[in-house]
Amino acid sequence: MASMTTERTGSLGAAMSIDVEDWFHTDNMRGVIACEAWESCELRVERNTMRMLEILQSSNARATFFVLGWVAEKCPRLVRTISAAGHEIASHGYGHQHVYSLQPREFRSDVVRSKRYLEDLTGKAVRGYRAPSFSITDWAIPILQDVGFDYDSSVVQTIAHDRYGRLSGMHAGRPIISLGDGFHEVCVSCIRLGERGIPWGGGGYFRLIPYPLWLQGVRMILRSGMPYIFYIHPWEIDPGQPRVAGLKATNLFRQRVNLRRCEGRFAALVGAFEWMPVCDLIDGPNAGRGAAEVRDDGADDFAEHPSRGDGAGREFSGGWADVDCRSRAQV
Ligand SMILES: [Zn+2]
Predict the structure, then answer these.
(1) What pLDDT sits at residue 304?
(2) Percent of the chain with pLDDT over 90
(3) Which of 69, 249, 282, 284 is deepest in the core (most CB within 10 A)?
(4) pLDDT tens for residues 87-97?
(5) Centre of ligand 1 from the C-alpha of residue 136, in Å
């Protein structure tokens, strides 16, 4: 099980992100619950997100919450509570449609609606965007830049996934990439395998892979000199979410695998490392509390991991960020 001691994550650190959507917004439910039916679904996102906030607060961890605009309109108090607790509010768009399924003008409308509403609620600039189901595509980036985002976090440099989008210019081993004009792509973590990787940043993989192995993977990423970027959804800690008839077996598996264990795993992971919001990775190691020294049990149990031999981690060398990391003041 996880060490009860928070591990030092060095000057790069680990970023925690939570995609704030409800159980019925997922792609798994897309075929059986239409957008028009969302209004009649049981809203569980507020209680699940509040539970996550408690877990984060118990470890003094800070995170980025990529909030779906639809959820923000239903739960404005929740958004204000997250922001007041010192976490970063970012955008998960408004309607949770795949970016590559939209026309550019539809995408612009979706992100502007979400960004403006979140900024009105919190009084703070919304700097980050995450595409629903990581469905980012090249034409969307200039639009994100134009409407005032500082970063996108919608790329998983994995081998293959039937839903993930793609972005040009990504570089395996460099999870934070400058796309020009101060705009960055912050990739969700993978364990590198050639030019692509095994997803090691959350979602169903976090629920499926044995926790001790997951923990060792996170340590491997951090100790190889790269930041770690994790993501999770509030509905993943909710085994009591409604069961819906008619789901395909694959979608049922993706939605429900290990839901009962997920809150405990999440709490263990939060307690195991020092976490910062994604914006602190963009701003550099001196931003926020990202570089703060924390206690460490000194144990290097990862050294006993069978896959770590001489030179393990060298494949990650070369730095994690391209140029142009600079501080930006919140407005
Ligand atoms: Zn989502």
Answers:
(1) 26
(2) 67
(3) 282
(4) 999 999 999 99
(5) 12
> What residue ranges in 36-155 does DSSP mark as E strands?
64-67, 88-91, 128-129, 151-152
Q: Are 241 and 23 in contact (CB under 8 A)?
A: yes
130-157 in b/e form (b: 16+ CB < 10 A) is bbbbbbbbeebbebbbebebbbbbbbbb
Number of CB atoms found within 10 A of residue 205's CB: 16
Predicted TM-score (pTM) of this structure: 0.83
Which position has the token pair 């998983």?
156
How would you class 41 by CB atoms within 10 Å of its CB: exposed for 0-12, middle for 13-18, buried for 19 or more?
Answer: middle
Q: Distance from the CA of 81 to the center of ligand 1, in angstroms?
A: 20
Residue 303 CA to ligand 1 centre (angstroms)? 36
Report the candidate in 94, 142, 144 with the shortest Cα–Cα distance to residue 117. 94
Q: Which residues contact 274 (CB under 8 A, 6 or more apart)?
A: 6, 7, 8, 9, 13, 14, 61, 289, 290, 292, 294
Q: Of 53, 59, 113, give the one whose Cα is nearest residue 81.
A: 53
The residue written with tokens 């993501």 in the block is: 231
Q: All domains of the chain, ordered by start, with CATH? A: 14-288 (3.20.20.370)
Tokens at 91, concatenated: 């955008």
Ligand 1 center–CA 38 separation, angstroms: 14
AA letter at 25: H
The pLDDT, as a whole number, for residue 180 is 87
Other Cβ atoms less than 10 A from the Cβ of 54: the count is 10
| 23 CA from centroid of ligand 1 (Å) | 10
- Which amino acid, one-letter code, is at 204? G
Task: Name which of 180, 295, 175 is nearest 230 in CA terms.
Answer: 175
Distance 86 CA to ligand 1 centre (A): 22
- Distance from the alpha carbon of residue 29 to the mean position of ligand 1, in angstroms: 12
